[in-house]
Amino acid sequence: MAQSATANILTVLDTDFKGIIEEWLGTQVKEGVKRSDLFSDAESRAQNRELLKAFSKGIRDGVTGEDFDLDDDQWDDLRAVLADVSRERVSRGVTPTEMATFVLALKAPLFKRLEALETSDHSVLIRDVMLVTRLVDAFAIYTNEIFINEREQIIDRQRQEMLELSTPVVELWDRVLTLPLIGTLDSARAQEVMENLLQTILERQAEVVIMDITGVGTVDTQVAQHLLRAAAAVRLMGAECIISGISPMIAQTMVQLGIDVGTVSTRSSIRTALSDALLTVGYVIKKTGDQ
Amino acid sequence: MPLPSYAAFDESDLGAQVLLSQHKLKSSGDAVTARQAVARYMKDNGASALSVTRFATAVSEIARNAINHAGGGEFSIYVDRGRKQLTVVCWDKGPGIADVKLALSDGYTSGGGLGRGLGGAQRLAGRFEIRTAVGAGTSVLMSVTL
Amino acid sequence: MAGVTSINLVERALLVSIQDDITDTEILELQDRLSNRIAQNRIDGVILDISALEIVDTFVGRVIAQLAGISKLLAAETYVVGMRPTVAVTLVELGMYLPEIRTALSLTHALAQLRRV
Fold this sequence. Notes:
CATH class of chain B: Alpha Beta
Number of helices of chain B: 5
Keywords (chain A): Phosphoprotein
Structural class of chain B: alpha+beta
Distance between the termini of chain A: 103 Å
CATH topology of chain B: Heat Shock Protein 90
Number of helices of chain A: 11
Strand content of chain B: 25-35%
CATH superfamily of chain B: Histidine kinase-like ATPase, C-terminal domain
CATH topology of the largest domain in chain A: Globin-like
Oligomer: heterotrimer
Protein name (chain A): RsbT co-antagonist protein RsbR
Helix content of chain A: 55-70%
InterPro entries (chain A): Bact_StressResp_Reg, RsbRD_N_dom, STAS_dom, STAS_dom_sf
Domain STAS (chain A): 166-277
Pfam families (chain A): RsbRD_N (PF14361), STAS (PF01740)
Shape of chain A: elongated
């Protein structure tokens, strides 16, 4: 028997391409992974068709003997379609398990058709089933990888967005800026905060900056370093920097850690920092009436 | 274009990068030309203002070292075809550095300086490699991703 | 545009705009000329406008710090104005906080501060 290992599989795919798609969809429904709440029938069918087409192409060109590697060029199409489908599905909230089961559901319709082939010599059938299993399994594993990748990208993007959200520089008054810091201050964020702050100083020609750390959970040596470096950069640009919101506990910790703030002004509350800042730019806060 | 034999780096350190320009380092004006060439290329290829300033500062430090401590040297700029990476190599035939680790630490100076130059350049550049031996000159390679 | 950097007298301060292509030799020469001018005239301050500088490395930083020291001995304050954000970040990273100098956002700010003295 001189035919290649993929001959029967390709015959099955070519003879009943449409039928396989329908049955694949059917299995997906049975397994509860065809999310009709998220995808219309037409959408699901179109996705399955694209995937199966690319999968067949890969089998035709990308299997040597019984060996294949989904990273090879011959599998480009499948990887591209898969990337699209996964992106779509991740964005609509499909889980990785659902996605893997969705791919694995392709086995049943293929097995059934291989079994029905005339050539049904048992050893050939076993060989074909094994190859299909390996192919579909690799397909599913790859899907899972893409899926996880896609989710990581989303997490990354969200982290980036949160980073930007959490470091707003607010113009409190003419030439007075405040930077309310909240949460933790790691190196990446400190850098981001510093750049953003210095740029705003330039744009607004701000003379005083209040960095308020009321919302910063803990101040260890590293956080203190970040704060002092930011303060030093602010001073180099020609603005004054006040660090406010230093609670008694933080003050104690800083002294215990031996952190020397040098010439940077510090205040316990943003209230006093604000009145000092306004004074610097020439304003006094005055009470009106007799209340 | 191959590096001259007295540069301690060769093509294997540059990967697929090609020579963009080469500068002689003799007077302090040459250091300005070299770092401005680097800055211009980075800006033209979309590098952020901060990354330009950081890398150009590092370039200025190593170019000055070659001029002041080694009586001059040469400076080459290499780029990859995708314009995503820029590498500079600066080499001299000066006295070399006996203790590189010491020279890279803040506060060390071989004469008159503040002793932050080399260590500072290392901190500012993405990739920083130095090859030197007493009497054999000094070569520094630095890279930045655009 | 290499050449002699001009020194202008504004009120009782010497104003210098430093260009981006200034060389080590030129900046040392500038330091020398400024020191002489401070000693000759009755000067309260030296204002260095570095807004054109794309980089300030350890050498330039050191010269500026020395100039501040010299001025102080001659009873004048040195202001650096117009430092770019990227330069400030890089200097801090180099560990050069320049405590010797005074800083201001712009020439106007520096002059206002000098008048208050």
